[in-house]
Amino acid sequence: MPGILDLSNELLLEICSYLRPYPLLNITGRPFHCWTRALKEHDRASFAKIHAVSSLVRSCRHLYVALVSELYDYVPLLTSHHGWERFLRTVAEHEELGDYVRHASINIPGDKTIADIYHLFWLPSLDTLDLRGYGAWHDTEWEGNESPTGISPIQTMRLLHCGAHEEALTELLRFPRALGELWYEANQVEWDGAYVGEPAVEFTCEAVRRCLAAHAESLEKLIFTRPPLVHEGLGYGDAVDLEDFERLRSLSIHQVFLVDLISNTHVSRCLPQGLEELEVFYDDSGYVDFLDEGGEISQPHWLLTLLEELKRPDCKLKNLNRVRVVALEWHEGEDAEDGHDSSNASSPSGRDSQDPGDVQLRGHPNSPWQPPKLLLDLLIETGICFSIFLHPERRARLTPEHVKGFDDAWEDGWDPETERSSSFV
After folding, report:
1. Which stretches does the entry tag as region Disordered (predicted)?
2. DSSP assigned state of 23
3. Taking the CB of residue 292, how many other CB atoms lie within 10 A of it?
4. Longest CA–CA separation in the chain, Å
């Protein structure tokens, strides 16, 4: 009777592909507050399943040859505090194994610097790198040609809970040759600090822009967020200026980084001409809301101004055709635990919304909420694909004909019961 070793290497690889999931390549396919946790949970599940592949690889020489590339293709250590040291030591001592690594997720203890992890950037096939907890305050003094600046082939980098100061963050972002996608989750609390005897350092979006400058000609997707607030109004300051990022097509950003504290900012002046998709997240409910408790326009003056500009033939952002706003605003009368919105379930329009006529808004099937009339009119007149998500039962989405919609239309199917907590832990 034939055994497993009689199978071809192609069949062995196909069998092992079912033993563990591949990395999440599209974390934006759900509400923004779930991204960090979803990535960690996926990584944890992958780490558990990868032991099956490891056992097969070590069982005999034939399986080792057939499956070693599968074992090292994705290295999920985002939830491990010590595994990254063993991994880096392995690929440093056995360079041929490092050739197989295409995706890596590393959890970095807060006292480590780039000198402790720079071997990652020597990996010749690394395409996606997740780093959690990188918090260095200074760059590194290199000897000779030891620094791998500008040689890494990484295309996608995700920096979770990143508290690195400007010099250290700039150095880190200079190692990839040309990033195509970056998720930067800024730990402002860690950035805002100083050593004894040194001046305090303040987190600013202008400093972040300087850090990103090395990829101004290559970056196509930028996700710029922050961890949950520890108190109201943390970190309101300047707005980020991305006008020079000419290849940027998709921007997902917290409202605080896009608009600054004065909400009527003309955001178009800070956005690149080629931008196609804009996602804006409100994370400070009760301090800065998208809508007030009466459902009227509260803070989105930046959006009203932007929509007015998009209607003009000389608009700078001619390619912008998708706008999504996520606020997750829980008010009295709503149960944040079970996702039920009792304040709006029986009202077809909320407040003063218009009847959109032939326009078919997509929303909760049992709660036909619409945005306020002023905002809805502008969205429809502009002719863009739009989505506003404030609550599972307070949402509206529209994709006009002949307009490209969102690739990840999670608004129709997201179940708050499966992801009840907004915690990133």
Report:
1. 334-368
2. P
3. 12
4. 75
**Distance in angstroms (rounded) separating the CA atoms of residues 32 and 20:** 25
Report the relative pairing of strands 394-398 and 385-391 from DSSP bridges. Answer: antiparallel
Measured distance CA(400)–CA(386) in Å, rounded: 9
Task: Spell out a b/e string for 108-142, using b for 16 or more CB atoms within 10 Å of the CB, else e.
Answer: beeebbbeebbebbebeebbbbbbbbbbbbebbee
Collapsing DSSP to helix, strand or coil, 385 comes out as strand
What would the pLDDT profile of 69-115 be if each residue is shown by its tens digit?
A: 777 888 888 877 668 888 888 888 888 888 989 999 898 877 788 88
Task: Measure the CA–CA gap between 326 and 33, rounded to whole angstroms.
Answer: 10
Distance CA 254, CA 2 (A): 57
Spatial CB neighbours of 152, under 8 Å, sequence gap ≥ 6: 120, 121, 122, 123, 126, 175, 176, 177
Cβ neighbours, 10 Å, residue 22: 12
- Predicted model pTM: 0.85
Tens digits of residue pLDDT in 34-69: 888 888 888 888 877 777 777 777 777 777 777 777
- Residue 400: phi, psi to the nearest 5? -65, 160
